[in-house]
Every structure is written in structure tokens, then in C-alpha cells.
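Exercise (ungraded).
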Amino acid sequence: MKADKEIKKKRMRLSLPPEEYMHSGHLACQGCGATLAMRYALKALGPRTALSIPACCWSVIDGPFPYSSLSIPIFHCAFETAAVSAAGLKAGLEMVGDKETTVVAWAGDGGTFDIGIQALSGVAERNDNIIYVCYDNEAYMNTGIQRSSATPYGAWTTTTPVKHYKNRPKKDIDAIMAAHRIPYLATANISYPEDLYRKVRKAKDIKGTRFIHIYTPCPTGWKTRPEDTIKLGKLAVQTCIFPLYEVEDGSTWKINIKPRDKKPVKDYLRLQGRFRHLNEEAISFIQEEVDKKWARLLKYEEVSPL
Amino acid sequence: MRKVIMGNHALSYGAMLSRVQVIAAYPITPQTQVVELLSEMCADKVLDAQFIKVESEHSAMAACLGASLAGARTFTATSAQGLALMHELLHWASGGRLPVVLGNINRAMAPGWSIWSDQNDSLSQRDTGWVQFYCGSNQEVLDSVIQAFKVAEKLHIPAMIILDAFSLSHTYEVVEVPEQEKVDEYLPPFQPKFRLTPDDPHAFGGLTSPDHYLELRYKLQKDMEKAPALIEETGQEFQELFGRKLGLVDPYQCDDAEIILVTSGTAGYTACVAVDHFRQQGLKVGNLRIRTFRPFPFEIVRDILSQAKKVAVVDRNISYGHHGIFYQEIKSALYGHSPVPVFGYITGLGGRDITLDTFRQIIEETQKNDAPSERISWIGVKK
Ligand SMILES: Cc1ncc(C[n+]2csc(CCOP(=O)(O)OP(=O)(O)O)c2C)c(N)n1
Ligand code: SF4
Ligand SMILES: [Mg+2]
């Protein structure tokens, strides 16, 4: 009796809705951040949602024909077309009388930063009424870990071997999207599910092009331990390597988490095989760059609305 | 209602009368007037459709595919470089069984830049799984759009309406614009067998193992094979309602012809003038204008051509390292069925005019030789 009461008192309050729209049977690797991103995002989006998914890990993760691990419909579209496929789908649904369904483009970093950027820019400029989610694992994972323009400085990939590791910074896709003056843009992280959930919920109720950039660790491509996925997500925010913030109408910046004691990037890098080759000099260069970018972000927030 | 309109506007009227619901297109000469008129129609609410003003042809087709998968009747138009840019997604349309209708203005491929007509753009898309109609008049362009939706939606296979740059796209002709009610009677709203909706969630086009892929393609071909009969049937129905025939092919004076020309597009009508001319001189010439190129109308082509003594195929296109594309197709249709010799001619690339004199040279050469040579016969090349 007493024990029962104790349990009741201690029972955790769920911080996310219990409904699941992603199910077991999917094909992702252990510790895959991209799957967590989908699971949390769908909790916010609900059952009246349709996805366009281009070529990426997620086009495989969902499962082979005739199966699907999601209980919402999916349009598997061409690699470079996620955004506009979603826009076409939205227009088509509206024309057949369904004005309510939320249409979401769900693409990897390659499909967003690289090959899909033209179609994405077109959609954003027209302010087509879709949500665009980029789950960012910082390389082309589907095809075997090749560099993308989202791959960070210093990283090994199969096309940036350790002797020629990536020597250019990660493309600032969020700044590019903000420059389109879309109504809503947010960065999110699978290690902060409540924050991710809140942002997708918020996006759902806004009209126009909404862009959500989710940090999703990839044990296979990053050479990390599956059990470190959540830890890496936390460290990405605590080191300010992947800050969490929102931008409204391309003019108002709001940083969601400002770490009181910024952790050194070294703590983040050393957990990952893809950075193992970096010497002290390279690591301090990365630290400097992260610091600069963070300072710039603080400035943006300070002076906004711009 | 009779109107004097350009070929491009015939496409727009065809789309309007078909009550298209989503249009996504990108401008390219000589297609621009198609989308200009359609965007006006949408703005003026003459047409209840969404017009997505995309940033490229690639995105135009991608948007069309999304809209079509949602169950909306969808239209686009393009030309040459634009069609080539869509190539990956043309496969997506047929593989996804999405009955989009596309108007393509035949324009020569660059480089060098050319805005004038030839068929290499659309024929390069031969194997993408689209129905292809080659039109010879503005009336046929308008009528074909309406018929194309009927055929495409029944079979869940996309369809292309093809017309020559300038000699149709920008040429004004008298066109009977049918009444909306009659078109509605002919073409009911699009009722897809499958469509994407959260009410019945499915994943479309996902990873398909070797266990299934072959069957999906087999089904696509099987449905493509139903198209010739369906085109004849819907063409017949069209004739009953509107008084104009829309068949697989358009034969002219073929019954007793000793030489039959095989043509397509506007050259197909110039050829009829040539036929009259030669007949006046006592030469028994006929013309078979191929309207439907995909699916290839094997049976009717064989029936007509095997009666002739010689066949002369006129190609405004070329498969480099082989021959004219219609020439190859006609030979393959006749193989094992008829010993009639087939002569192939290439002419008119990049918009060089195909005139009565072009046909005079073709007929003369065909008469002169007993059997076709391996070498390509070029007509009108400056040497
Ligand atoms: C036009 C085209 N080029 C290349 C490919 C091959 N391809 C498939 S997925 C992929 C990489 C995807 O990378 P990303 O978008 O980052 O998603 P991830 O696999 O990392 O989840 C590539 C190059 C393709 N499918 N289509
Ligand atoms: S390769 Fe990476 S992103 Fe892809 S399924 Fe595996 S862990 Fe997930
Ligand atoms: Mg990736």
C-alpha cells in the first residue's frame, strides 16, 4: 500500500505525448540520431501529416516496399526535390479538398545543404506552406560517409581522408534560410526532446515556409559509440558547436540555451573517431572558430530585430 | 467557339478545359505563352487551379509529381533544355504511376543555342515510360491535351503532347474551342486508384527489392500495351462528341500508294501537300503521319506500310551513331512481318524548313534506289 503510494508520487510526468507514429521494425543503425528526430517530430506533428523524403538514410530507415515504420503517408521523392515535392503535395492536397494536412519535407544534410538547396531556396522565397526538416548527420551517410557541405572542419569522411581532412567550415545553412526571411527557423537537437517538440509544435501553427535544422549524431559515420549519441548531442550544445536558437521572419534571433560554462570543443571531438587525427593546433583552430561563431550569434540576438 | 490562336495557347486552352488543378512550370522559349496564358487564367479565376511558380523545370516536374500523388489533375509545359533537365523526374512520373500531362514544344538541343524545331529533345525521353503524341495542327494540340488526360488517368501513365517550335507554337490557326460542358462529359474528374492521404497512410516509391521491382515494371509495360486500344477508343468517343478524329496514326492516300512517306509533327501536313503534288504527276505516293509514338502503334503501322512497295521515313532527329529514330522504329515494327524496303532520311534539324522541295528530293532518291543503303541519306545539308 505504502509502496504503491510512493510509486504514484514518484511517477514521472511525461514531457512528451505518449502517442507514437514511428514504430519498431525500422532499419536504422543502433544509436541513430535521425530516428529519434523523426520520432519526436511526429509526436508534435500528429497523424494529419504527410512527408516527402528524398534519397537519404531515412529513405532506407522507413523500411522496404511494401512496409513502412511510420503511420503517416510518405512520398519518396528524388534526392534534390524534397522541398518542392512537399510544396506540390500541399497544393495537390488542397485542390482535392484537404486543407488541413501538414506537409513536411524530411531531408538529410546532403539533400538540404547541397543538391536540394535550389529547390529549397525556391520554396522559401515563395514562402510555400510547408515545414522543411533537415536532420543533420554532417555527411552523406546513405552512400557510405562522404563529405557534404555540412561536414564540419577537421572531419574525416571517405572522401576527406585523414591526410586531407575537411579544411572548409560547415556551410551556415541557417543564415542562408534566415536570409530568405521565412516566418520561422529553428535549430534543434535530439538530446533536447522537449525543446525539439516545442519547436515543431510551434512551426506547425505557423503558415509559410518553416525550417527546422536538427542535429542528429550518426554512430556509423562519426565512428562513435551508439550509447554516446545523447551525450554528443548535449556536448554539441554545451560547447556551442551546435547552438539552439530560433529566428522569426529572418529578423528576430532568440538563443534558447546559453551554457554558463562553455565546455571546450575538445570534450566533444575526442569522443568521435572522425576527429581522432586532429592535433592540438587543429583543435585550437576549431575552438577559435566556434568561439567566433558563438560571439556572432550573441550579437545577432542582441541587435535583433534586424 | 472558333478562335484564331497560336499552338501554345491551344495547349493552355486544352489544360483549362481539362480543369487542371495544379500547374507548375518554368519559362523557356518557345513555350512561354503556354504558361503566361495559364497564369492569367488562374489569376482571373477562369481556371480554379494553383500555379506554382517554380525556380526550374526540375522543380516544376517535382511539384507536379507531388500534386498528382495527392490526386490533383496536373499540367506542365516545357521545351528542349527544360525537358532534359526534368529527365530524372520523367522516370519518377511513370514509375510512380502519376498521370501528369506535359506539353513539350520541340526545340533543338544546345549547343549551339537554337530555339528552332527538331525532335531530339522529346525523342531523348523515349524510354522514360511516357505516352507521346506528336501533333500536326493547333486543333490537334488542344484536342490531344483533353484526350491525353483521359488516357493517362485511366492507365496511370503520364503523357506528353509534342508540337513543333514556331511552325505550331507561334503559328495562329483557326481552332474550334469545345464547350466546357461537353469536355466535362468526355473527361470526368480525376479519380486515382491510389493517392497519398493521411486517411489511408502508405509509403509511395520506397526501397524496392529485386523481389518486387521486376513485377512493378512488368505492370507498367502491360498497362502501356493497353494504350493503343484505349487511344483508338477514346479517339472514337472524341469524334462522336466533337466531330474530330484522334487516332494512333493519320494516314493520307495510303491505300493504293507505292511509296509511303512516314512523317510526324507539322512535316506530316507538308507531306500531304507533297502527296497531292506527286499524285498530280501520276506518282502514287501516300503519307503516314505518326501521331502516337509511345506506345508505338505496331499493328496499324504494319498494316498500312506492308501494302507499299517502298517506305520513306523522314526524321527531324538523329540518334548519333545509328540513324533517325523513327526510321529505327519503323524498321523494327516491320521486321519479320514485311519485306518492304525502308529508306531513312534526316532533315530539318535545328529548325531548317522542311518544304515541298525536301519531299521532292526524298521521293526522287527513294525512286532511284532499289534498296536502302547503310549510309544515312541527309536532305538539305550544305556541302
Ligand atoms: C541525383 C542523385 N545523386 C546521387 C544520389 C545518391 N545518393 C543517395 S543518398 C545520398 C546522400 C544523402 O546524404 P544526406 O542527404 O546527408 O542524407 P543521409 O544519407 O546522410 O541521411 C546520395 C549521394 C541520388 N540518389 N540521386
Ligand atoms: S548511417 Fe547514421 S544516420 Fe544512417 S541509419 Fe546509421 S546511424 Fe542513422
Ligand atoms: Mg547526411
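Further reading is listed at the end of the chapter. For now, observe: Residues 249-378 of chain B form a domain with the Rossmann fold fold (CATH 3.40.50.920). Chain B has two domains: 2-242, 249-378.
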